[in-house]
């Protein structure tokens, strides 16, 4: 279980650095926004190119993807219905809330957990591809549409994701993986370097926001925060288990991989998206905090029961 603690501890330390910098008044909320923008427009697209170019895209055709997709769909639908009919959230805020309830930290935490706990970093690839190529483009299209202040046309919904740097980086990475092409060093090395700044930028920006932003639950209903956190930590892994084991007959290490991946906390880049579009920032921040802390015992329990 050392990999679980190592992954969470690494994230926690970098977040703490951001909070400390803010506490010492070395940086402020302006710096937080700049870091988030750099991560969104530069670091994350480069990271997606390099990460997905090395992934085995044939894994997306596995039972893993079916169970993972169902585990994402259920929390998104549940939160979406509540956001629409109970909390009456606008489109952008509801989109960030849905992402907070279902978008797992498959990159900077999922990869080390898959490596150390499951023994194979490639096991997280189906989740990465599902999120980057399906869930994220749809969410970004909705966020872009909300920013326009009007309902998007079908053409806008179809084309807008492809104007987004993260989507373009993801698609380029998949193209490289499928074709087997390797970027020349003069291109690959700078992309690798730029990609390395994505996760630290996200985490430091998140730490700044924790220190200088509103208090926990200050931006809305506590029930909404509890809902997003429960959907992420409890509902998503339970749905993954039910679909994988009961419906598809998955067992053993493959089942453990599916459930552990679904039990990962909300990804930090959801906070980057929230900051970029100025929608649901505190809900995203608080859900990330709660699920990051809560995922440790959840993943340990899953590993104990299924390992």
TrEMBL record:
<feature type="transmembrane region" description="Helical">
    <location>
        <begin position="287"/>
        <end position="306"/>
    </location>
</feature>
<feature type="transmembrane region" description="Helical">
    <location>
        <begin position="65"/>
        <end position="87"/>
    </location>
</feature>
<dbReference type="Pfam" id="PF03547">
    <property type="entry name" value="Mem_trans"/>
</dbReference>
<feature type="transmembrane region" description="Helical">
    <location>
        <begin position="203"/>
        <end position="226"/>
    </location>
</feature>
<keyword id="KW-0812">Transmembrane</keyword>
<feature type="transmembrane region" description="Helical">
    <location>
        <begin position="6"/>
        <end position="27"/>
    </location>
</feature>
<dbReference type="GO" id="GO:0055085">
    <property type="term" value="P:transmembrane transport"/>
</dbReference>
<dbReference type="InterPro" id="IPR004776">
    <property type="entry name" value="Mem_transp_PIN-like"/>
</dbReference>
<keyword id="KW-0813">Transport</keyword>
<keyword id="KW-1003">Cell membrane</keyword>
<keyword id="KW-0472">Membrane</keyword>
<dbReference type="GO" id="GO:0016020">
    <property type="term" value="C:membrane"/>
</dbReference>
<feature type="transmembrane region" description="Helical">
    <location>
        <begin position="94"/>
        <end position="117"/>
    </location>
</feature>
<feature type="transmembrane region" description="Helical">
    <location>
        <begin position="34"/>
        <end position="53"/>
    </location>
</feature>
<feature type="transmembrane region" description="Helical">
    <location>
        <begin position="238"/>
        <end position="267"/>
    </location>
</feature>
<keyword id="KW-1133">Transmembrane helix</keyword>
<protein>
    <submittedName>
        <fullName>Transport integral membrane protein</fullName>
    </submittedName>
</protein>
<feature type="transmembrane region" description="Helical">
    <location>
        <begin position="123"/>
        <end position="143"/>
    </location>
</feature>
<feature type="transmembrane region" description="Helical">
    <location>
        <begin position="164"/>
        <end position="183"/>
    </location>
</feature>
